[in-house]
Amino acid sequence: MTPRRYHPALVALHWLLAVLVVAALVAGGVVLDDMPNSDPSKVASLRAHMTLGVAILVLMLVRLAVRVLTRRPAPADKGPLATVATVTHWGLYAATIGMAASGMALSAAAGLPGIVFGGEGALPPDFDGFAARAVHGVVAGILMLLILLHVAAALWHQVVRRDGLMARMWFGPR
């Protein structure tokens, strides 16, 4: 029998990751981007951002495993809209994992683990010279667009179609 709702672990991970990913995007794009590397508080901010990024990666990999291993409700749409939904959902996984990977590549290239977690040395003058920084920025933009598309689709289902789709990503009898 096809369940009416997603697995509770998937639901919990969905909403937890939604909050964490938005927090990481805000921290990276608003706080860290505007803070010069010479600012003494930059190291603590980077430590929080990097820790959050690793937590997001681990939780996203767990979510991916739960997604693959559990039964899901039937697709909400058919045809092209179902394809868009599928591509968007897998894109969210890929972009989130890509953010973590590019963040780790930037961290390694800039020597951040020793600086941020071990107090060894100083931050480089800026991160613009690192290729992984450019990738991290591009993937952030893609991730934000995918999140906007995902939220817009959820609101369309909830407000326009009124088909109860959002109840599938909440707790209750399956």
Short structural description:
With 174 residues, the chain is mainly α. Helix content is 71%, strand content 0%.
Task: Tell me the layout of helices and strands.
Blueprint: H1 8-34, H2 42-69, H3 80-109, H4 112-118, H5 131-161
Helix pairs in contact: 1-2, 2-3, 3-5
What structural keywords apply?
174 residues; mainly alpha; 5 helices; 71% helix
Q: Can you characterise this structure?
A:
It is a single chain. The mean pLDDT is 95. The chain has helices at 8-34, 42-69, 80-109, 112-118, 131-161. It has one domain (8-169). The chain is built from 5 helices and no strands. By secondary structure, it is mainly alpha-helical. The longest helix has 31 residues, at 131-161.
